[in-house]
What does this fold into?
Amino acid sequence: MNLAPNEEQTDLARRLRALGADSLGADIETRDRTAQRLQPGDWQRCADAGVLGLPVPKEYGGLGLSALTCAIGLEGLGAGCRDNGLMIALGAHIWAVELPLMEFGTEEQKRRHLPGLCDGRTVGAHAITEAGAGSDALSLTATARRDGDHYVLDGVKRFITNAPIADVFIVYATVNPALGFTGVTAFLVDRNTEGLTVETRFEKTGLRTVPWGEITLRDCRVPVSARLGAEKQGSRILSRTMAWERALILAPLLGAMSRQIDACVRHARSREQFGRTIGRFQSMSNRIVEMQIRLDEARLLTHRAAWDLDRGTPSYFAEAAQLRTSESAVETFLDALQVYGALGFTTSTDVERNLRDALGTRISSGTSDMQRLVMADKLGLTSRLRAAPTTGPHGAAGITTGGRHAHAR
Ligand SMILES: Cc1cc2nc3c(=O)[nH]c(=O)nc-3n(C[C@H](O)[C@H](O)[C@H](O)COP(=O)(O)OP(=O)(O)OC[C@H]3O[C@@H](n4cnc5c(N)ncnc54)[C@H](O)[C@@H]3O)c2cc1C
It folds into this structure.
């Protein structure tokens, strides 16, 4: 594995950092207070810069970049852009909608949806969570009843990122509740389908600029051609979606952490107490060094997860990247609060908003407990999964991911 970014990757990161710093996330303080609103024009600015189609093949309107290049570019975007909510909106759109479409969509579905998702005309959302199915996502109760050349969808999904602004949803429902998780099937549902309604019930603690909502499907008829993948292939589609999402959705948060660390270094070099700058107190410099080490660890895990995705090697690194990045971000923003003292406890710095935003990332794409549980499964520690013979230095290559927990969020 070559750890040095090449020229293309360095240029992309620099370009997206400038985009984020110069053109995105305006009015973040007001929107954070009023909640659930992206800055008008930001989505299109991201589309125009190619962000919405980073991994999508060129023939469908994207840039066709590798997972590793996407990770490096998106870290640059996050380093420039102060709107972490926008970053999560983009991530849900790219990794939980475009990716499964790329991997499981028919040619007709790809041609119909991907160009608009890449050029900013449409927004995607991914809907699996229900009131009774959170971490145990595949215990969902939404149903898909076959009726001639249609399916009739019924159910309620909640906490769906982008729902209020989405044009197309990937909805998971079961074709036969008696089959348990093996009956789960995925569908592409257009926003204007009769019987689909969206409402916003819960106001978020952090990531307040990205809208989310509850989706209700009542006698919602979709043609058979709207099914994504085969019938009963939903658990496989979700498993692949989670591998991509967990590996890459927090890449911009690495950038936010690095921006925060830079700001802490500047503050520690200028704020004086007891006749010297606070950065000269060893407990303070140790704290900032730990922040940097956490960032470096999270970045390495993210790059390794992306590298494995590019090679098509199953591994636990996606879960490790999601776990370490989300938990490190919370610790890092807590440390930043200490570095700034009372100033960090006010809304005049980005610190408290970053902290509230990071809290959500320990829950979305699966809670920290679930990342550990899936990793334990992949390491062969629980009964449902069997570790295959070790084939590589990390011992996880070639493992089976057929068990239920492998698909849990
Ligand atoms: C910011 C954000 C964005 C989201 N976006 C989407 C989206 O776009 N689409 C979507 O479908 N969903 C989305 N979600 C929902 C998310 O996937 C769920 O919140 C998550 O899977 C956890 O489910 P839950 O909230 O019901 O918690 P629960 O499953 O009720 O968990 C509660 C607690 O129990 C623990 N727990 C549960 N099972 C176990 C176990 N087996 N072992 C140990 N501990 C366990 C959990 O770790 C957690 O601490 C989003 C959530 C957030 C916060």
User: Anything to note?
Assistant: The chain has three domains: 7-123, 126-231, 237-407. The domain at 237-407 is CATH 1.20.140.10 (Butyryl-CoA Dehydrogenase, subunit A; domain 3).
